[in-house]
Amino acid sequence: RGVRDELGKRVIEGYIADISEQVLAHRRLAELELRYRSIFDHSVIGIFQTTADGHYLAANPALAKLYGYDEPAELIASLQDIATCLYVDPQRRDVFKRIIRERGFVSDFESEVYRRDGSRIWIAENAHMVMSQSGEVLYYEGTVEDITERRMAQEQLQFQATHDSLTGLPNRNLLSDRLERAISLARRNGGSVAVVFIDLDNFKFVNDSLGHTVGDQLLQEMAVRLRRSLREADTVARYGGDEFVLILDSFGGPDILKIALDRVVEMISEPMELEGHELRVGCSLGVSRFPDDGADLPTLLRHADAAMYHAKNQGKGQVAFYTRQLNAAASERLRLEGALRRAIQSDEFSVVYQPKVGISGQVQGFEALVRWHSEEFGSVSPVRFIPLVEEIGLMLPMTEFVLEAACREAMGWRNRRLGPESGISVAVNLSATLLGEPDLVDRVRDTLRRTGLPARLLQLEITESVLMGDVDLTVRVLNEFKTLGLSIAVDDFGTGYSSLAYLKRFPLDVLKIDRSMVTGCECGGDALAIPRAVISLGHSLGLTVVAEGVELPEQRNVLASLGCDEYQGYLYAKPMRPEETIAYLETKTARSEDRAVLSEP
Ligand code: C2E
Ligand code: CA
Ligand code: CA
Questions:
Q1: What distance in angstroms lies between residue 429's CA and the mean position of ligand 1's atoms?
Q2: Can you spell out the DSSP letters for 313-365?
Q3: What integer pLDDT is reported at residue 345 of this predicted model?
Q4: 380 pocket-lining for ligand 1 (C-beta < 6 Å)
Q5: From residue 157, how far is each of 165, 222, 223, 304, 426 by CA, in Å?
Q6: How far apart are CA 365 and CA 425, in angstroms?
Q7: Are 545 and 534 in contact (CB under 8 A)?
Q8: What is the pLDDT at residue 392?
Q9: Do 29 and 37 contact (CB within 8 A), yes or no?
Q10: Using only C-alpha atoms, what is the Rg of the chain?
């Protein structure tokens, strides 16, 4: 400053301070700020500062970009209320604030948020509170990361772990979750839960004969049908192979449940076309219920499974409910299985023969029926053990045994010149699953050659359900059989689903009317309508019509008046041991010779 000195002259007085330190400090601060600014501006992670009441104080370009804005300023101006504008779930902001209040920070706080264009992404936030000296909340600051991809990968993994990749249905893992939820709900409101075990009837056959691609498509179609036949809230899961499990809750009483499940059976057995093959698949359903039959998944499943086996044994397309008796049956089945596996080696199978008789009493042929006399169980009915034979994969050896025995027997009748000039035929039952066996026709040809039986004296009986399987394959195999010279009968006609028109497609010779249609036909009325239609249809297709299970003369008379060609049943004879057939044929032959003599002029 200007001052006067001791002589009164004007002089300037001052001092000099060394501020290098300060200048440097400032510069450093500016640089530092610039550096932080640069981190803020160039960070690939979103960075923000927001007020407690939900306004942005600052946002970096990365955050703007993440949320779909061109500039941070734009984001700050648009997102006026974070709770409602940003979070898909508006409660999320409250949770965020609560955690930060309690702990001072949040870490890896995952939320779904809206971008500017309305699309959704998943973010993870790490943030903390900034406080003033006096302890008030100034603002929150933190970072935001886009974790949409990670989240999707996680969800995908989760989905894969809990769903079946082929059908997209829940798998076993998810099943127990769903059941637990249904059970705890039922506990709370006193309701019940049904667990339904579904097994497809012809799946193995389709899979083996048409290949896995068609098998897979079939399972996918089944998944769609099951889904469609149930309510949204019901669970449809793939349990493995061709097994599905349903969980149904609050279904009302068992009657209503039964109606719903009958509808499921109906939808499953609708025909379908896969890669040019027309297919129909039957199924069997077993049901167990919480709380009556069990309170956890393993128990309920085991009981539903036992009920399913029971349904299977009752025939195609059945729905069976679990009862306590079934449990005992299931463990017996296991023992039975073991005994059956040993049956072939230990010579426990034998074959009996039941005659088929023409209208004037002449024997046309015999049906070969397998018998099992088990050391452990005594005589077991084929109705019980044939399904087991099928299941444990013994159908081929067992059938070969029956076929061989039947052909030898028929050769015996022939060598003794029993029966009519043309000879007595023998019919062997052929299970549907065997049609998929690649060298089946060769095996039959070999057996004929080995035993010397002319092919025309062998008949194969296939059940009607075969006609519901793969039509092309069936037609091809049956045609090969026809080329060998043998004849084909449709067994149990009237028990399956096949329409009459279906028969035309197959090279058949004989139609066997099932016993269920014969029983009661003597009463006339409605009970007669179906046999009448079947017989006339059979004839119009050029087939010989045989009635099974004829027990009463009245039944024979009624059927005869409808034009039925042959009769089989206890009225004529029960199935008999081989040595009995010869005595039986000898008396028959003798009688018809007597008649021939008598009728001579
Ligand atoms: P299926 O082929 O329909 O055989 C006819 C069944 O009806 C036989 O029972 C026979 O004994 C019975 N039956 C015959 N006449 C009468 C009658 O007048 N009244 C009554 N109530 N029943 C009569 P079976 O021998 O117990 O055989 C049952 C089923 O087991 C057969 O039904 C067939 O599906 C199967 N089966 C038997 N043997 C074989 C075989 O060697 N191979 C295959 N794949 N299945 C067989
Ligand atoms: Ca038969
Ligand atoms: Ca039959």
A1: 9
A2: HH-TT-EEE--HHHHHHHHHHHHHHHHHHHHTTTT-EEEEEEEEEETTS-EEE
A3: 84
A4: no
A5: 12, 25, 21, 30, 59
A6: 4
A7: yes
A8: 85
A9: no
A10: 41
Q: Is 581 in the pocket of ligand 1 (CB under 6 A)?
A: no
CB count within 10 Å of CB 478 equals: 21
Which atom of ligand 1 is least distant from the CA of 395? 44
List 576's β-bridge partners, or say none. 353
The tokens for 178 are 């769903």
How far apart are the C-alpha atoms of 356 and 585, rounded to whole Å? 12
DSSP state, 1? -
- Evaluated on CA atoms 491, 495, 497, 501, the torsion sign reads positive
Q: Is 75 within 8 Å of 82 (Cβ atoms)?
A: no
Please give all residues whose CB falls under 5 A of ion ligand 3, grouped by chain where several chains appear.
Answer: 491-492, 548
| Ligand 1 touching residue 551 (CB < 6 A) | yes
Q: pLDDT averaged over consecutive 10-residue blocks of the chain (601 residues)?
A: 92 93 94 89 93 92 96 93 90 93 93 95 95 91 92 84 92 90 90 93 78 90 94 91 90 83 92 85 92 89 91 84 79 84 91 95 96 93 89 92 97 90 93 89 97 97 78 91 96 67 85 89 83 87 95 96 97 96 86 47 37
3 state SS of 511: strand
- Which of 367, 386, 459, 488 maximizes ligand 1 atoms within 8 Å of its Cβ, making it the mutation to test the pocket? 386
Q: What is the pTM of this model?
A: 0.57
What's the token pair of residue 279?
């297919």
Ordered alpha helix ranges (H), 122-170: 148-162
Q: How far apart are CA 237 and CA 195, in angstroms?
A: 11
Angle at 473 between CA 470 and CA 479, to 5 degrees: 130
